[in-house]
Structure to design on (126 residues):
């Protein structure tokens, strides 16, 4: 059973940076495709970024492209989401998710993922 635990969230001012961590256990990260999603109050869950297990290809949503970077550290069984130039509209609960299927491209569809972390709050406010 794959377990995912997010950490690193909190309150940050506009223009600031945060690094979220997603620590995986129960399965080696080498074989997991990892996605980061977020959900703001009253909105649908949005795919932010992902990295595939097989090719290492990454995806970024248009709203975060150029500001967020997904980093995979297989030695630590952890995936990071480095977030810079944060805006108020980045405020949301952030989730990491995983699946174990072979995939050369990762999906932005939450329904493609089988395992989810508990979520962590990120608030961007002055």
């Amino acid at each position: 059973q794959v377990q995912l635990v997010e950490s690193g969230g909190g309150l940050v001012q506009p223009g600031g940076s945060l690094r979220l961590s997603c620590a995986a256990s129960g399965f080696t990260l080498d074989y997991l495709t990892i996605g980061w999603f977020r959900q703001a109050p009253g909105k649908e869950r949005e795919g932010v970024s992902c990295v595939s297990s097989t090719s290492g290809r990454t995806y970024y949503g248009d709203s975060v492209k150029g500001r967020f970077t997904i980093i995979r550290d297989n030695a630590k069984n952890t995936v990071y989401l480095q977030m810079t130039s944060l805006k108020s509209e980045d405020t949301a609960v952030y989730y990491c998710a995983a699946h174990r299927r072979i995939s050369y491209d990762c999906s932005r569809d939450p329904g493609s993922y089988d395992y989810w972390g508990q979520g962590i709050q990120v608030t961007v406010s002055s």
The radius of gyration is 13 Å.
